[in-house]
Amino acid sequence: xxxxxxxxxxxxxxxxxxxxxxxxxxxxxxxxxxxxxxxxxxxxxxxxxxxxxxxxxxxxxxxxxxxxxxxxxxxxxxxxxxxxxxxxxxxxxxxxxxxxxxxxxxxxxxxxxxxxxxxxxxxxxxxxxxxxxxxxxxxxxxxxxxxxxxxxxxxxxxxxxxxxxxxxxxxxxxxxxxxxxxxxxxxxxxxxxxxxxxxxxxxxxxxxxxxxxxxxxxxxxxxxxxxxxxxxxxxxxxxxxxxxxxxxxxxxxxxxxxxxxxxxxxxxxxxxxxxxxxxxxxxxxxxxxxxxxxxxxxxxxxxxxxxxxxxxxxxxxxxxxxxxxxxxxxxxxxxxxxxxxxxxxxxxxxxxxxxxxxxxxxxxxxxxxxxxxxxxxxxxxxxxxxxxxxxxxxxxxxxxxxxxxxxxxxxxxxxxxxxxxxxxxxxxxxxxxxxxxxxxxxxxxxxxxxxxxxxxxxxxxxxxxxxxxxxxxxxxxxxxxxxxxxxxxxxxxxxxxxxxxxxxxxxxxxxxxxxxxxxxxxxxxxxxxxxxxxxxxxxxxxxxxxxxxxxxxxxxxxxxxxxxxxxxxxxxxxxxxxxxxxxxxxxxxxxxxxxxxxxxxxxxxxxxxxxxxxxxxxxxxxxxxxxxxxxxxxxxxxxxxxxxxxxxxxxxxxxxxxxxxxxxxxxxxxxxxxxxxxxxxxxxxxxxxxxxxxxxxxxxxxxxxxxxxxxxxxxxxxxxxxxxxxxxxxxxxxxxxxxxxxxxxxxxxxxxxxxxxxxxxxxxxxxxxxxxxxxxx
Length: 777
Known about the structure:
This protein is mainly beta. The protein contains four helices and 73 strands. A 15-stranded mixed beta sheet has the order 1-4-5-8-28-32-35-38-41-44-47-50-53-56-59, covered by helices on one side. The model is unreliable at 1-18 (pLDDT under 50).
């Protein structure tokens, strides 16, 4: 140990103690003093010595060598200011696992080694490091193909803001997987088997609880993320069974017999092979708590390898797993010149943190997501993030979920899902990054994808982002539900068929970009509001399609080069507005149902009737913004209507009772006066819970007043867990007696549902002016 000299000023200035420095070497001894010539053997011993030294900041120097940890190295608030620095990043290697020896043959191709604690689940892992590579898991039917199960889920996928599904799936719908005859081996070992289910942009990883051979059903030990068969996605594979050992380089953990089984590659000698099995999911951990965060820790020049992951579905972007390097409640901590590779879960995970940096580092060959950043104000700069998701194909390159994050000059490539995900932050900067070969497995993502607010995506280059098979596609720059007031500028997209996709966003400016496609191209503003598209250069050899062109309120100074080039190119600047939709040729169907509880809490159990979407404005254009839905049913006494208004998070909802000023909706229906005359009645409900009724002519005023006395209405603003408004819901019970009609099956009469949004002053309706309602069984 080396401690700096004390500096004492004769003028009675405060005593200053310089930092202590400790050394660690693979040839050291924890009984040593920790000096350069008498180093410790372990990082834990050096950490503990630093905690015992006088006030820091302190430094730990890690000398060249391999370090195998029996448990994670954990730093906490006591380690404020500590730096752990490797002599040479290429030669200082830290492993979160144990070398395996004692291999014996297991049949013609396989080798096995017994492992204590595996049978008892005291030691369980889902990654294996063989000669410096993440080895391939035993996969049924094989390492490249998938199977199709027989699960059925017919409800459509709704936007996130509308809750994804019209009703919540049952546990059975999330755990019971029927399969085709012959697809699953009859004697599958459920103690070993794990099933990966592919969804549109995500995946589930679940264990197997039981196997009913006669019914051809696997029952999972935990729920999948999506119902079986949702969105017609039925792909699956089975991991970690002996039947999945179909080619050299594969392995499985035989929990039933307490051993590891491996099939070596042709050039691998089991007498000299290096196999390292992980002992932990997290290797280096910097973890404080809300009241005592870790501050000013630096990790530098270290190579970190060999971690595992839990048996759980990995979440969006395969980011809901532990990181080999994990920071929690860390302030102003720096990860510098690290190499985090060959790890079974995440590479680097930062959560509930503030400030700091990840820079000049390599994160690659991970089982799941490369980097997850949940730190307000963190800078991620000049990193190489690559070849990710080797065990979890929903993996993103980098997922950022805080405010004020700066993602600058990184190279990200070979990613099964999105290269970058901006997960809900505001005032972020994504600048000068290169992203390519993303979206290689999953759908509905992009090179740079996000739910971002007031953020800038600038100066990036994305290339070679191609959709794979039927799905929701792949994009270059994609802002999704709830994004608003962002700028996408000065970027390049090459060999991407959909260079910019904006789904349920508002106020975004797309300007001065260059989009190049050797084939067709789609520029999309799906259900978006108040968009700007200006100063962009589009070069497209095929057909240019602009989806929801009307959402671009400003379209100017764009240059569009189109054509095959043989006879020159057409140069255009304007894409015409989308024409109004034709009137709908079907009525709203009111189906018989039981009376619901009128509490502005719409549930599928109470409303087992079809849903309609309010997707027309007063001129029959399809407006932008989150879709709002309604349902209509009836019994012998009442017509029942509910409305589910989805808006952007943090939207402004006016809860008064002034029509065309406050947020409200009206049910427009033709009633019948006592003298037989028809009258249009408007039953209005407001987000704040008020209700009123009016008639379209003075003759029906008395009838409207009587109707108002009989109507029951409940309205309530929908809010996030932190109180931000995101729409509202309403439920009506409208008595047929007050309408002067009876609900005869087959009867059809004029009808509409219209919604006023105070924030934009816009209307939404089932039909532009008037549709019809039909009573059906």
